[in-house]
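Retro notes, structure queue

What went well: the backlog is down to a handful. What didn't: a couple of records were mislabeled last round, so from now on we paste the full input next to the output in the thread. Example, using Acetyl-CoA dehydrogenase from Acidobacterium capsulatum:
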Amino acid sequence: MAQLSTPAISAPAGGGFLLEDASPESIFIPEDFSPEQRQIAATTAAFAEREVLPVAVALESKDFDLLRKLMRKAGDLGLLGVDVPEDCGGLALDKVTSAIVAENISRLASFSVAFSAHVGIGTLPLVWYGTEEQQQKYLPRLASGEWIAAYALSEASSGSDAMNIRTRATLSPDGQHYVLNGEKMWITNAGVANLFTLFARIVDPADPDPAHTQFSAFLIERDTPGLTVGPEEHKLGIRGSSTCPLILSDCRVPVANLLGEAGKGHHIAFNILNIGRFKLGAACLGGAKHSLADSIAYARDRKAFGKSITEFGLIQQKIADAAARIFMGESMTYRAIGAIDAALAAIPPEQAAGSREIQKRIEAYAIECSILKVWASEMLGIVTDHGVQIHAGYGYVEDYPAERAWRDARINRIFEGTNEINRLIISGFLMKRAVSGQLPLLPAIQKLMEEVLAPPSLSAAPDTSDPLAREAGLLAAAKKITLFAAGVASQKYGSALINQQEIMAALADLTTEVYALQSALLRARKLRQSGERADRISLAESMTALYAISAFEKVTAAAELVAAAVAEGDTLRTHLAILRRFARHEPANAVALSRQIAAAAVEKSRYPLTMA
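Corresponding output:
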């Protein structure tokens, strides 16, 4: 896999951020982009602005011939082949670069969704699991945009419950084909795709026991007899992307088109989704930046009571909140993907050519991938909602971009596994890694419980030389609160905790906010250490401080939910007293922070830390 020049960083185990005190130099941040990565970002953004956005109306009207032409143009620029091996017509670049493309293509969500489904979950199954013959047959066509790919997993009765699929495959009597029957639902790109990665259970007619079926993946070409693409769905948002059901009626698929091993389809499905999740996070980041820029452009021109509404404090508050959330999203996204790249770069040369070790290294960051998916999709929802509110009545009509951005954003909380499922993945994987000994979470919880029982000690004097000393204290407190909540929940339910979904979701929110705050704090400190311009350092620190306020509110609320769910009476009061002890802090001046951040964003007419 080709690598662009990136700084050497460490790659701690997935979930290790809860327990380890990372150093600023150990993380990757957007300011570390290489000149080549910046050029790829500029090329992608220019394509989205000059080729995609001007034809938005036609794309939203489902002009799929135009969509195909744009995909071919993207292929000509190399944008479809970032993850494809060089001998199959691709560029085989690192995952940071792949995320950069996902972020910068996100100017029109309908095209971004079609693009991302093609290059991610549509193409990567072949990259990782395809035979050499399969790769040589299909990947050059996918990398060029000659063909478009789709991923067909969901069914009417099995969305997030992927293992419950009902589509069946039986081997033909002559052993030359698998015969598939069933139906797939909500398949992105279905109306334009030439190749589907489709999941079914292989059934032996002589042994109909459901437990003996084999969950498997197949490569199915569009013109395969027995495959029918259903009508387009009429959707709330992303109306210019194709979404259709697939009907398989005695669909005959050559045995050579079995992807990977029979019975190992779940490895393909779940490993590919990890990549899909971090790419979706990056795409949401790009969408949020454009939504903020559109809101600022409108607000600068909109006059009320004799002045631009950007001069009003409550409008500034929304602009600043959006900018701070984008900063957090950048910090989290590129920290996580940079760590994945570092893990991949550390693969021994003798294993580098195989995909299994790559998959294993990426799977170690399943927690972070789910965090990015949940946090970024909800961040985009907040930013686009701010956009509608800033536009006021104009935000509710189709003549302005705020309305479409708000509608388009909603699907991201459903894509790539619902946010509810991903919250369960975050906390479930943490518990799994803790029980297996891969993550020393249980000893850390025990140590904290011992600290709780010890007499209070005098607090150290705050470091007045550190502009983010307050936020560092909030991060330390958030870690303790998270460990405490996990500890009392584990004491109450033991191994049955996994069945308490509300508590598991609260633990996921606690974990996520720790990762968010830590990522921004480390990035701000790295900027100061690296001699970044003073105005950029000041903005980074202010955005960290502003978001820390809402992050800590979410931390305390989630911890109180857990405490009230596991205890009552005197025990609950004791738990709440401990939480209040951890949560004690002096509030930051949110008004001053918002005004500073909004002023910078309005001056630049965009997210203020965008690099030139």
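Agreed that this is the format going forward. Reviewer comment attached to the example: The first helix runs from residue 35 to 52.
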